[in-house]
Amino acid sequence: MTSPYSFVRKGEPMGLLDKLKNKMEKAKGRGKEAAGRGAGDPYLESEGRRDRMKGGAKQVGEQAKDAVKEARRTFKR
Known about the structure:
It comes from Actinoallomurus liliacearum. The protein is 78% helix and 0% strand. It is an all-alpha fold. The protein starts with 14 loop residues before the first helix and ends with a helix.
């Protein structure tokens, strides 16, 4: 069975896919938050805020990993 990520080259991080997923999670959260605000549903609004914050936190983690990889690449020479 082949991986759904088989198009990613060997040795290359799957960071692009992770970043895309995080951005989609943030967008989903924004949508839920707006829908909750429009419907007057505080539970849906807070759920959207939670999704948005979770996606943002994951995005920060991806940026930190990228910074570490870049630092390793810089000092490896």
